Every structure is written in structure tokens, then in C-alpha cells.
Amino acid sequence: MHKTAIAYSVGKLLQIMGLLLLVPMAIGLYDQRAAGWSAAVAHPQVYGFILASLLSVGLGTIAVRVFRSGRHLQGIKEGLAIVCIGWVTLTFFSCLPMYVWLMYGQGSPDYHWFAAFTDAYFEIMSGFTTTGATILTNIEAAPRSILFLRALTHWLGGMGIITLAIVVFPGMGVTAYQMFKSEVPGPSKDKLSPRLSQTTSILWGVYGLLTLAEVVLLWLGGMTVFDAVCHAFATLATGGFSTENASVAAYDSDFIRWVIIFFMWCAGINFLLHFRALRGDFKGFFRDSEFRFYNAVIVIAIVLTTVVLSIQGQKPIDEARQSWRHEQPTEQEFAEHYQKQAAQLGSVYDTFRIATFQTLSIVTTTGFATADFDLWPDVLRFGLVLLMFFGGCAGSTGGGMKMIRILIVARASINAIRKRTQPRLVVPVKTGGHVVDELQVNSVLSFFVLFTSLFVLTALLMTFFVPDLMTAITCSIATIGNIGPGLAGIGAVEHYGWIPIPGKWILMASMLLGRLEIFTVLVCLRPAVWRK
User: How far apart (Å, rounded) are the C-alpha atoms in residues 96 and 446?
Assistant: First the structure.
């Protein structure tokens, strides 16, 4: 392992991040312009960004100059280490503005510095990993600079800050390809051009084009430009951070909700298919078996959810009240909330729209909410938890296991059952008419085992810090799958701020493992990898 190569590349990443932090800093300066230049710079929502930007650019430049000799010493192991260390390091420097605001901008003198740092790191890690789990109890009270920082980390993390670095600094050879494989989700990494830098440029181009289209549509639907940008960033990244306490439910507009539904669906699809469609190859969607499976899962889930909600509605209020919440509302408050949610299911169309929105939000791991699905019948709550494991397609910005892995595991299992009665039968696993080689099948099966094992381990550990089993279980899959909201204490109308500090660090580790798809992090934790 050439550590100078890692330090050089992480320095480059810090330079990029330091410059990007100037954007939310400018928003903070603009919002404080009436106070005068000196007062605006000294405001917590501004000087935290100045500090973070100066440190990122300064230390990044020093690393690039000091370790310049390592730029040609990069290989596969270095690529894995750069991705893992890069994400942790970028999260640290990017959380500094949030830390400053939590400590000095909220008027909370009793906020311990380590608790504030933990919350800031949690929020930004949740942003970069596109998890969307928040510690904020009053999102609307946060300054626009902080809200934009959350949205920006979503957007960068969705396509991958490392892939952006490959665009800005091409020519990194085998290291770049290894970083691309580690950061772009899913087992399939088809390239559109012989040069990896061109491939990443194409992906970012499609990503940016879809984001711009959603911004325009949300603005036309009645959102402010700022809200439209933040929600578009969160949608295309399948992140879920909103600028409103009630998430998308705060916007009483069918147009806005259907726009977000459409772009959540787009974000869960392999971006290479989007590129081919933009060039006129729409048949590529239907030739892709993962795309067909993705849509089949979505349609079945929407239909079942609509039918069950139309027939049963919400669960009885006495049963719904038993769901654990960290801050239990009074009986009157809960009754008003229950009636408000029930009123949203007034017609078949309303029920269908809500079912479609929440299904897409969970399947694509976006995590937006227009309804408190913790009030739904248990069969639907179980179904939503099950969908959290699926995730989007390979090459999308969605989290979870990925549809192609579920498909391969299902077909491999069916073949194993057939061989029980026909031992000499040779049946390869196929997807889209192509045979999946045995090495890739074994890799997928290994990932499946690791993912479920990590889910069980995280849920077990969280039972020590969370007084409710449903909360412990769903906060495990919600962070590993990079979804955000779960059930009970972390439901659609709840938050993660109340979870004890050790529990938050466990969940942060789960977010990173889930976003980098486990193998990258585990490889970097092996001592043998770091030996020369």
C-alpha cells in the first residue's frame, strides 16, 4: 500500500470540497447582508463555512504538494483506500459548518461539544450517503446555508464525489477504475466509452440534466427556486432531506408530488439506460431484465398498498397509539394527527397517489414522506420494511441490495432447488438472456450474506441504546439501506436526534458500509491490505 498516493488523492478531494463549500457560504452571506459585511462574516451560519473551506483547500493543497511523488504509485488497494478514507475525511470537514451552527447558532449553551460534533457528523454522513436520516427537530428553523449544505451533500453523494474527482482529475489509471467500481452502486459497471473519465462525465451530465429538469418543474409547480433546488438534489440523489418539517407533505400540490414521484422513479434506474434513451435507444429499457423486475416490484407494491388502504384504511386508533414514539403526544394531539392522516385517504385517487409516492420513496430509498405510514395496517408496514432491502437498480443513486442482486439470488435459489431432484442438471444463472458467470454469482451471494448479517448485528447493537425493538430493527435497515425513515421512534414524522451518542456512531458506520456496499470498507479494515 502506497500511503503517499492516498494522501495525494485525498488532498485533491479536499480541494474540490473546499471550493464547493463556498456556495452555501455565499447563501449565508446573502441572507445576512442587512447586518453589514463584518457582522455577516462573524455570523455562525457564515464563518463555519469560511473555516471549513479554508481548512479543506489549505490542507488539501499542502497534501497535494507534499505527497506529489505518490500520484503515480496508485493501484487497486490504493483505490479502495482513497474511496473509504476520502468519504470519512470529506464528511469531517463538511460537518464543521453544521457543528459551528449547532454550537453557537441555535442559542443552546448546554450543548456539549462532542454531542454537537456527533450530531453534525451524523447529519452530513447521512447527506453524503444519501440516507436522509436527520437529527434536526425543527428543520424550518435552520438557516438556508445549512439547508443547502444538506442538499449539496446529497447531490454529491448520489453520483459520488469520487466520480466527480475522476472528471476533474482524469488519468488516474487503474486506481480510478477501482474507485469507480467501489463508489457506483451495484454489481454491474458497464462503461459507455473506452475512457473512464468520459464515462463519468456522461453520468454526471445525465445526472445534472435530470436535476435541472426537476428544478424547473418544481419551480413551475409553485416551489421557490431555493426549495426546488434542494428537493431536486434530494430526489435525484435518492436522499430525502427536505427544507420542511413535514417533508413533501408540506406542499399541498398534486403536481409537485407527481413530479417528485416521476423523478424518484428515474433516480432508481441505471443511469446508463437514461443516457442511451437520450440518444434514442428506448428499447434498452425493455431489454434490461433488472429494469423490468424493478418496475414489476413497484407495480405490485403500489397495487397491494392501494387495495389494502382502500379496504382497511388506517389501523384502529387504539392500535396505532401503541406504536412507540420517543416523545409521546397527548391523546388529543394524537387523535388530531390520526384524523388528519385518515382524511388524506378520502378517495381512491388520493389513496393511489399516496401509495405510489410512499412505495417509490421506499423502493428507491429516497425517504420522502407525504403520509405517516406508521399508522397503516401491519401488513403494509411489514411490506415497506421488506421493500427497504430491495433498493434501486445497479448504476442508480438508490441504496439497498439492488434489484439485480435480488434477481440473481432468486434465480440461483431456484436452480439450487431444481438440482436437488436433478443432480446432473447444469443450469446457469441468466439475466437478460446473458449467463452470469459463477464468480459473479458467488460475489452476489456473499454480498447478500454480509448485508443481512450486518443488518442483524446493527439491530442487535441498537437494542442496547433504543428502548423499542421495532425502532431498533428499522433504524438498522434504514441506515444500511440508506433510506432514512423507518417505523416507530424513527418513523416518517420522527427523527434520529434523540438516539444516544454511541447509537448514532453505530448507525453512521452502517450508513457508510451500506453506501460503499460493504466490501470496500471491509477490505480497508484488513491489516494485510496496508502492508507493503
Answer: 37
Of 164, 311, 157, nearest to 237 by C-alpha is 157
Say if CB 313 and CB 345 are below 8 A apart.
Answer: yes
Compute the half-sphere exposure of residue 369: CA atoms within 13 Å on the CB side of its CA.
24
User: Nearest to residue 81, comparing CAs of 165, 160, 156, 183?
Assistant: 183
Per residue in 56-87, pLDDT (tens digit) is 999 999 999 998 876 666 667 777 788 889 89
Please provide the size of the chain in residues.
532
Query: What is the radius of gyration, based on Cα positions, of the chain?
Result: 23
> Percent of the chain, pLDDT > 70?
91
d(CA 223, CA 217): 9
Rounded to the nearest 5°, which phi and psi values hold at 347? -135, 165
Three-state DSSP state, 210: helix
Question: Residue 328: which of 193, 157, 467, 424 has the closest Cα?
Answer: 467
Cross-strand pairs, 435: 430
CA distances from 458 to 311, 355, 363, 403 (A): 36, 29, 21, 22
Question: Position of cell 464547493?
Answer: 20
Q: How many CB atoms lie within 10 A of CB 328?
A: 11
CA angle centred on 75, ends 72 and 80, rounded to 5° = 125
DSSP tag of 105: I
Whole-number Å distance between alpha carbons of 172 and 261? 38
Q: Are 294 and 282 in contact (CB under 8 A)?
A: no
Which pLDDT tens digit goes with each residue over 189-239? 455 444 556 777 788 889 999 999 999 999 999 999 999 999 999 999 999
| CB contact burial 298-309 (16+ within 10 A = b; e otherwise) | beebbeebbebb
Instruction: Say if residues 25 and 177 touch (Cβ distance below 8 Å).
Output: no
- Would you list the DSSP string of 23-71? HHHHHHHHHTGGG-HHHHHTSHHHHHHHHHHHHHHHHHHHHHHHTGGGG
Q: Is-contact 268 396, C-beta < 8 A?
A: yes
In angstroms, the first-to-last Cα distance of the chain is 5
Q: Alpha carbon 153 to chain centroid distance?
A: 10
Q: Are 176 and 79 in contact (CB under 8 A)?
A: yes
Does the pTM surpass 0.90? The reply is yes
Cβ atoms of 186 and 271 closer than 8 Å: no
Q: Are 380 and 362 in contact (CB under 8 A)?
A: no
Other CB atoms within a 10 A radius of the CB of residue 512 amount to 23
Which ranges constitute the DSSP H helices of 364-423? Answer: 378-390, 403-421
Helices (H) and strands (E) in the chain, counts: 25, 2
Find how far residue 336's CA is from the centre of its chain: 32
- Helix, strand, or coil (residue 462): helix
Find the helix or strand (DSSP H, E) in which 479 lies.
helix 469-480
> Residue 300 and residue 161: Cα distance in Å, rounded?
34
